[in-house]
């Protein structure tokens, strides 16, 4: 306990919190299945066309749940713990606040997805043929992925990753009460998560945004650097992995699963 507020850890979840984690993981698992069905036959390698806006938006939100819910679970549990503690002590904490918090998080990432889609469509219309698998698209994809590797080493990445890795500290410093407060806090956490992982998601566009395999790889990168206790090591490992993928795509594309041509 600190200032009357319980501190959440991975080892002292009560049954309600364990159930919340289970729900998030089940939703993630279902989202993986739905993503596989939605994108069946659409993975055309590097720079796969994301399709019409409506289809992309639906696919993007489901993909976010699949990729992000496991790594965002500690933040959701911390928020649920604080609101439950307030409710038990007779203070204002309306039911459903945790769901609204998660919705705010997804909204931030949806805004990013729409911006990325708009940029992709604009560039594709201005420079036809830029986003093709070979030959220029290969080097463009490698360059984008290498930029994502470099971003892993920047101060901006370090600051935003710390916000994602310290759930109780993040929430206690920014807590707002009520459903509107939950939405604002979810939006803010989502914005920090975007700041942390935007380069990884852009790299996913380069690898093939409709590829379930690459979704799993990028999702694993996100989970590793947010959840492993060794932040610096995890961050550097992801940077090295991205750099190696970029080099392989540029110089030995046939060796990279799902992108060789």
Automatic annotation (TrEMBL):
InterPro entries: PpoB2-like
Keywords: Membrane, Transmembrane, Transmembrane helix
Lineage: superkingdom: Bacteria
UniProt keyword Membrane, yes or no: yes
Pfam families per record: PpoB2
Residue ranges crossing the lipid bilayer per the database entry: 20-41, 53-79, 100-127, 139-160, 181-201, 207-224, 236-256
Full protein name: DUF2182 domain-containing protein
Organism per entry: Arthrobacter gyeryongensis
